């Protein structure tokens, strides 16, 4: 029988917290993914594009850790190479939208008045268009490839930062110390970049960690649809798509390997981001 | 909704305030919707006008003479400035004419309508699964101390499974290995169609269902810590009654908001899932028309998606105002 959770008992701020294993594991996985994305191409046992029709659709073995795909390419190597593209895309999106969104948020909070309201309107319009649609349309206009969806998603993700950071920045701008700095004759630019930005930065980082996972998924989804990175480049979303024909003939290893990589990466970044935002008091 | 204030109180003033609050909110949200849709459609229209590809060549073929091309361009209004072209497009959309497809040589409306039905059914099935399973698990995780870790782990995992990965796994397990469901297509006739759409709907609802679970568990948990629940318990009101009468009622608002956002997400996610299962819905139509540079179709489908998306978001907003007396005051 269900009982009501009475978790109202406030935990006393103990000096020594119990070790947060989830935080440790997720940090390690995130670091590992970043490392593999950086050096994976150098440690890959095979060339990602070397085909071998005689060794097509093999299961996992000592020589091919994750097996081979429909034309005999080593899946483990392709996953390693794919990590670079997928993580680079997610990194670019998160970094670009983080800068854009934070800049807009602080500008909006600092200016207040009609600027704030006008920017808010623009952001609302941007929320009304689904990200995947924008990414797909960008591919239509600029041609399928790496940059069109990556840049489109950068713009799509900016409002999400802007909304969270703006409310924090508004609070920050109302603080007495800001008034003090202003009276001390500091320029707006200096107050915003040196003080307000510095105080909202932990929140931006927490938000960026969470956004990394969704950026990775959205970018991979565009590639999966066929409007992102083009074959024979290895990218995780593209690998899931490539593997579909093999799934029908009972050899799901390619889709599965890339899919598991995506899920593990996203889980790790989500957990880490949740912990970070809980620590910095981000309201989601 | 006619919520009467309690008898005996001076009714006139408070009633008018919240009524006018609702009216002004409705008016401003209508303006918001129209403005948003206009702005979004204009940006999409403008962006697509810069897209590569020559519609005249697509219609007439490569062998057409320059004179014929110029005549066709004038006929299509391609020489007009952007704003004029947008205005023409907009007015014909208002009259129910979405244009003519370059590749199919058919009314876009005729292309969109049957596919919209398929997509609607897909999203409907996914939404039902998402709401039933997502909210049930969320309540379980929010109310039961024992189940909480399992529910939160499952939701954390589920929210990280992208639609296209879920599709591949489901096809591999339930369609290829177990053979319970067809691998792709949308089927003929209603029963067959539903059977074809089961796996896609599951794939589509996994991550949004997990999202709903997370948020509803959090809402219930937050409510359970509130003073009124403690007071009720202190007064000896049975747990079940507290849960149903007090806790769930108050927790339903954030749950509804989350569900609405998730349904809007399902609409966008349908583009991916239709591609994964080769379902002939508007998502597939969008991708196919992008590949064949069939811009009237791209424009029409984008418009449909944006309108549905905005409509769902507005319904959440309005429902919130109607359900939450605090918001009715029009703060």
Overview of this structure, please?
The complex is a heterodimer of chains A (284) and B (331). Chain A has one domain: Orthogonal Bundle (MetI-like fold). Helices cover 70% and strands 0% of the residues of chain A. Chain A is built from ten helices and no strands. Chain A is elongated and about 75 Å long. Chain B contains 13 helices and no strands. The two termini of chain B are 19 Å apart. By secondary structure, chain B is mostly helical. In chain B, α8 packs across α10, α10 packs parallel to α11 and α10 runs antiparallel to α12. The relative contact order of chain B is 0.14. At the A-B interface, α3, α4, α7, α8 and α9 of A face α1, α5, α6, α7 and α9 of B.
* pLDDT < 50 stretches of chain A: 1-12
Class derived from helix and strand content of chain A:
mainly alpha
CATH-level-2 architecture of chain A: Orthogonal Bundle
Name the CATH superfamily assignment of chain A: MetI-like
Q: How many DSSP H or I helices of chain B?
A: 13
User: What share of residues are in beta strands of chain A?
Assistant: under 5%
Under CATH, the topology of chain A can be stated as MetI-like fold
Approximate strand percentage of chain B = under 5%
Number of strands of chain A: 0
Helix content of chain B: over 70%
Topology of chain A as a string of helices (H) and strands (E): HHHHHHHHHH
Could you report the average pLDDT of chain A, rounded to the nearest whole number?
Answer: 83
Please provide the count of β strands of chain B.
0
Shape of chain A: elongated
| SSE succession of chain B | HHHHHHHHHHHHH
Can you describe this structure in just a few lines?
The complex is a heterodimer of chains A (284) and B (331). Chain A has 284 residues and is mainly alpha-helical.
Topology:
The complex is a heterodimer of chains A (284) and B (331).
Chain A: H1 21-43, H2 75-111, H3 113-127, H4 131-142, H5 147-173, H6 176-183, H7 188-225, H8 236-242, H9 244-248, H10 253-279
Helix pairs in contact in A: 1-2, 1-10, 2-3, 2-5, 2-7, 2-10, 3-5, 4-5, 4-7, 5-7, 7-8, 7-10, 8-10
Chain B: H1 12-49, H2 55-60, H3 66-76, H4 82-94, H5 108-143, H6 148-158, H7 163-177, H8 190-224, H9 227-234, H10 239-276, H11 282-291, H12 295-323, H13 325-328
């Amino acid at each position: 029988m269900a009982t009501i959770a009475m978790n109202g008992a406030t935990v006393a701020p103990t000096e020594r917290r119990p070790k947060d294993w989830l935080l440790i594991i997720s940090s390690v996985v995130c670091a590992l993914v970043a490392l593999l994305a950086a050096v994976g191409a150098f440690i890959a046992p095979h060339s990602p594009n070397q085909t071998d029709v005689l060794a097509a659709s093999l299961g996992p073995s000592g020589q091919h850790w994750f097996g081979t795909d429909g034309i005999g390419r080593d899946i483990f190597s392709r996953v390693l190479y794919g990590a670079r593209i997928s993580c680079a895309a997610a990194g670019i999106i998160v970094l670009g939208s983080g800068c854009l969104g934070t800049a807009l948020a602080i500008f909006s909070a600092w200016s207040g008045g009609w600027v704030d309201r006008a920017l808010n309107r623009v952001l609302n319009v941007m929320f009304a268009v689904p990200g995947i649609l924008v990414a797909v349309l960008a591919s239509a206009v600029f041609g399928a490839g790496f940059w069109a969806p990556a840049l489109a998603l950068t713009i799509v993700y900016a409002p999400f930062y802007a909304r969270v950071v703006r409310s924090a920045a508004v609070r920050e701008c109302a603080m007495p110390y800001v008034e003090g700095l202003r009276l001390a004759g500091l320029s707006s630019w200096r107050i915003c970049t040196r003080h307000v930005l510095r105080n909202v930065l932990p929140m931006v980082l927490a938000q960026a960690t969470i956004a990394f996972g969704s950026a990775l998924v959205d970018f991979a989804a565009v590639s999966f649809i066929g409007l992102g990175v083009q074959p024979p480049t290895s990218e995780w979303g593209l690998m899931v798509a490539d593997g579909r024909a093999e799934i029908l003939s009972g050899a799901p290893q390619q889709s599965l390997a890339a899919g598991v990589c995506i899920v593990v990466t996203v889980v790790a970044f989500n957990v880490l981001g949740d912990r970070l935002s809980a620590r910095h008091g981000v309201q989601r | 909704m006619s919520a009467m204030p309690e008898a005996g109180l001076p009714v006139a003033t408070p009633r008018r305030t919240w009524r006018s609050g609702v009216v002004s909110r409705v008016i401003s949200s209508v303006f918001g919707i129209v403005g948003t849709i206009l702005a979004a459609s204009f940006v999409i229209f403008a962006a697509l006008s810069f897209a590569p590809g020559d519609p005249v060549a697509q219609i007439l073929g490569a062998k057409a003479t320059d004179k014929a091309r110029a005549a066709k361009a004038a006929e299509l209004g391609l020489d007009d400035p952007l704003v004029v072209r947008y205005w023409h497009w907009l007015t014909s959309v208002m009259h129910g004419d979405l244009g003519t497809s370059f590749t199919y040589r058919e009314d876009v409306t005729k292309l969109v309508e049957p596919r919209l039905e398929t997509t609607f059914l897909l999203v409907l099935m996914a939404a039902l699964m998402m709401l039933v399973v997502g909210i049930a698990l969320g309540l379980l995780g929010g109310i039961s101390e024992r189940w909480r870790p399992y529910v939160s782990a499952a939701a954390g995992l589920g929210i990280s499974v992208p639609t296209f990965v879920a599709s591949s796994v489901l096809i591999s397990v339930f369609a290829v290995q177990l053979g319970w469901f067809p691998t792709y297509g949308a089927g003929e006739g209603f029963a067959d169609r539903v059977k074809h759409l089961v796996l896609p709907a599951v794939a589509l609802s996994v991550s949004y269902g997990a999202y709903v679970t997370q948020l509803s568990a959090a809402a219930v948990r937050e409510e359970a810590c509130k003073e009124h629940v403690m007071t009720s318990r202190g007064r000896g009101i049975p747990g079940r009654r507290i849960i149903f009468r007090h806790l769930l009622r108050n927790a339903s608002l954030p749950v509804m908001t989350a569900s609405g956002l998730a349904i809007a997400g399902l609409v966008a996610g349908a583009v991916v899932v239709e591609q994964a299962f080769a379902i002939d819905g508007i998502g597939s139509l969008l991708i196919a028309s992008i590949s064949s540079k069939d811009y009237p179709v791209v424009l029409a489908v984008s418009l449909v998606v944006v309108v549905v998306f905005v409509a769902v978001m507005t319904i959440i907003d309005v429902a919130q105002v109607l359900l939450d007396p605090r918001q009715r005051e029009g703060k």
